[in-house]
Each structure stands twice: as structure tokens, then as C-alpha cells.
Amino acid sequence: MASNYWCCNGCTHSNEHGRRKCVQCGTTKNGYSGGGGDTWRCSQCTFINEGQRSKCSACGAYNGGHGHGQDDGHSPRGGRGGRGGRGRYGREIDNEVRIVLLGKTGSGKSATGNTILNGELFASTTSGSSITSRCTSRQAQRFGKEIQVVDTPGIFDTNLPNDVVQKEIVKCIGMTSPGPHCFLLVLGLTRFTQEEEESIDHFVNYFGRRVFSYFIVLFTRKDDLDHHGKTLDDHLRTVPTSLKKILGQCDHRCIAFNNRAPSPARHDQVEDLLEMIDEILRQNHGECYTNDMYSEAEKVMKQRQYQIEKKRERERERERKEIEREVEQKYRGQYGSHYKSQSALEQRVAELESMRDHYAHRSTALEREVRELEDEIDYEKRKYGSPSSKLVAKLRNLEDERTQLSSGRGAASEREIEDLRHELKRMQKQSKKMNKEKDRIYQERLEQLDHKYNQLQNARTEVRTEVESGSGNVGEALLGGIMSIGKLIWKGIQMLF
């Protein structure tokens, strides 16, 4: 079978090279079967793979017949730095797909970014003037993923000074840190020039040949092909050897987009592209692209992200305390007299109950003292004929005190205390109702505070925005961090243009 076609593993139908799904059964393309080699069935997921593949393209498990007894420990999506990346970069970027658009001015990068994100998020035009002169990042949720697209200045734009281009490259690294999942080389259907080829070579020399493992070539203006009744495979037969070499280095990953197609067709195009990116991740152990530059950039991004998160925590706690103070102050001002009256009544009831208890205790003690004294007086009468005047005077004083206690002077009646208790209970019930309302208002304000902070960009996105806009010091920190890893690497940036 010619290399311009691939054989479906599901139904054996021959499909054109540019299609990602079988037109007969819908099975996703799994590479090219033109070599005519044997196939093998994965023992883990039963997917049928081509004989030359050592790993299953569906689940990542190794073929036992290729000298691998077990999986290498990397999950298809959970490897460090990949779309799964959980635990290394935090949950904010776990679900991301990071795409870097490459291509010359007028190739359709911005329009392609808009198709991927399903919205007019990038400025786009069909004119020859460059719309995107600075790295721009946009993102949207699609297909259950947070898709980030970074539209770069045309890598062939010789109008920009070298120092500007250098800073834009550093910005691109920071904005896509911890690393892209795909470098999308956007080309038109026009002639592939030597200038484009040289610029790609410079780019690869800087980032390393490993970038080809994450390269996808995307041709725009698929509608022109359709208009002339041609397919992507027809176009690929006409491209120069230099472009065919690039396609070969990226495992012939290519796709055509019609950025003016109706919404359902654009949806299918993006879905096919994301399937290609999934295949890239499977082949790279679930890891995104990274190098020393990205490692340095990630340190800076994490540090700034931590600063933002801590600052937000402090501001949130300060606002919470301010809300607590405002609510308390409001209710103290509105119901202060009530709380004051209740406090005074509580104190009065406590005093009366204390006095009542004191009188009761003293009355019992007096009765005991009187009886004891009367016994002493009787004893002296029997022994001496008459008691001492001292005992008689003491008895008289005790009897006077007993009479005073019996009259109730200075002590509140039980009825009075009960009435005050009833009033206090009423006031306490009202206070409980007011406190409940106060708590409701407080919780409502806290929910508003939570909503306010939940509406903020996540910290990583805010750092990326700072990098893009050049605000703050994070850009200089990125530049310094990247320069610190070696003059040779920095020289690589200068060689780009």
C-alpha cells in the first residue's frame, strides 16, 4: 500500500494520509501501516498495534515481544510535566493542553488559534501586515480540557529587533511553563521557502531536536484544497523535499484546517488535533516538552505563584476580620441598649438570688445558734439560779436578728425574682434571635468574599498574564533565570534571528 494511505486497524479500510479517523468505522488513526509489517495485540487493552511499535499506542503498555517485560512506570497521562502532571505542578495546570503556534506572518496562526479556542480571541486578518507582534496567550475550556494557545510573533519576522525577539521567546517560555504539549507549525498552502526552512532550523537548534517529538504541521486554507477537489495527501505530494524531511522528523503528523468552515466542521478539526496531541503524549510517557530553559522558567513561575497565593491569603484574612468587625459593630450599635439592659437584668437577678441564698443560710444558722444559747442559759439557771447577763444579752441580739430576717426586710420575694427571671428569659430569647440574624449576615458576607476570590484568575494564570503584559518583576526574573543557566544557551536565543 502506498505511504499516502493508512490501513484501519478496525475494518482494514484504506484511508487518506491526512484523515485521523477511518471514514468507514470511525476508528482513530494509529500511524501508518504502509510498511506491511506484522501487528500485535496489546495484552492490557487488546488494541491492535503495528509490528514496528514497541509500545501500545492506546494505553502505553510495552509489547512483550519487544524485550520489555513490564511498563516503565510512566502512566499515559500522569507523567511529570504532562497533561496529568498531578503533584508536581499543582491542580491549577493538571487539566491543561498547552499549544504554541509557530509560523510566519500571514500563515493563519491567529485564525487557527481562534478555531482551536472556538472564539474570536486573537486578532486575525487576511492582510499581509502582522497582527501578532508580541506573544499572546488565550485559553478556553473545550472537550473537558483547559486549552491554552500561545500565538507567537512570526518566527520569520525580520522587522523586529533581536533584543525584542529574545524577550518574546523568554515570555513564550514563561507563558507555557512547565512546557508545551504541542508545537503547532502553521503553514499556508503556498511555496515553502528557504527562509522558512532556515528559521525552523534555528528554532530546532535552540530548543533541541526533541521538539520534533511534539511537532504537528498544520496547513491552513483547507477550503482551497476542497474547492479544487484535492486532498491533503495530494498537496503533500507537491511539497519540497525540505518540508518532507520536516514531516518525516515529526512522524508525519500533519493536519489541514479550514478556519472558515461551519462550526461542526471546525469542531471536528479541533477534535482531530487533540487526538494527535494525545498520541504525542502517549509516545512521550505522558510528559510535556521541557528543557533547561523551561526548568529555570518553572522555578521563577512557581515562586511568583507562591507569592500571589500568600498575598491573597493575607488579603482574604484581613477582609474576613474587617467583615467580622463591621457586623459586630453594626449589631452593637443597633441593639446595644438591648444587650446593656439584658446584662443589667442578669446582674440584678444574680444579686437577688445571692441575697436570698444568704438570708436562707443565715436564718438556718441563727436557729441553730439560738437553740445552743438557750441550752446554755437553762444550764446556768439550774446550776447557779440565774444566767449571766452576757448570755442574756447575746440571746436578745440573736432574737432581734431573727425577727428582722423573718420580716423579709432587705430580701426580694421569690415572686419578684421569678418575675425578673421571666423577663430575662424573654430578653435572652430575643438576643438569640438577633445573634442568629447576625450570624446569617456574617456568613452571607463571607460567602460574598469567597465568591470574590473564587472569581479571580488562578495564581498560575495571573503569573502568565504578568509575563505577557510585562508588568511586575517576573519578566526580569525569567530573563535572569534563563541567562543564569549558561552563556551558550543564551547565545542560542541570539541565533534564532
Automatic annotation (TrEMBL):
Q: Which SMART domains match?
A: ZnF_RBZ (SM00547)
Decide whether keyword Metal-binding is in the record.
yes
Span of domain RanBP2-type: 2-31, 29-65
| InterPro entries named in the record | G_AIG1, GIMA/IAN/Toc, P-loop_NTPase, Znf_RanBP2, Znf_RanBP2_sf
Alphabetized PROSITE patterns for the sequence: G_AIG1, ZF_RANBP2_1, ZF_RANBP2_2
Task: Specify the domain of life of the species encoding this protein.
Answer: Eukaryota
Q: Where is the secretion signal located?
A: none
GO molecular function per UniProt: GTP binding; zinc ion binding
Q: What family is reported?
A: Belongs to the TRAFAC class TrmE-Era-EngA-EngB-Septin-like GTPase superfamily. AIG1/Toc34/Toc159-like paraseptin GTPase family. IAN subfamily.
What is the protein named? GTPase IMAP family member 4
